[in-house]
Amino acid sequence: MADALSPAPVAERPFPCGLIVLAAGASTRMGQPKQLLEVGGRPLLVRAVEAALAAPVWPVVVVLGAHAAPLRPLLAPHPVLVVENAAWAEGMASSLREGIATLAQFSRRLEAAVVVLADQPALDATVIRRLIAAHHASGRDVVAARYAGRHGAPALFHRRLFPRLAALTGEAGARELLNGGDPPVAAVELPELAADLDTPEDLHRWRERNG
Question: pTM of the entire structure?
Answer without folding.
Answer: 0.90
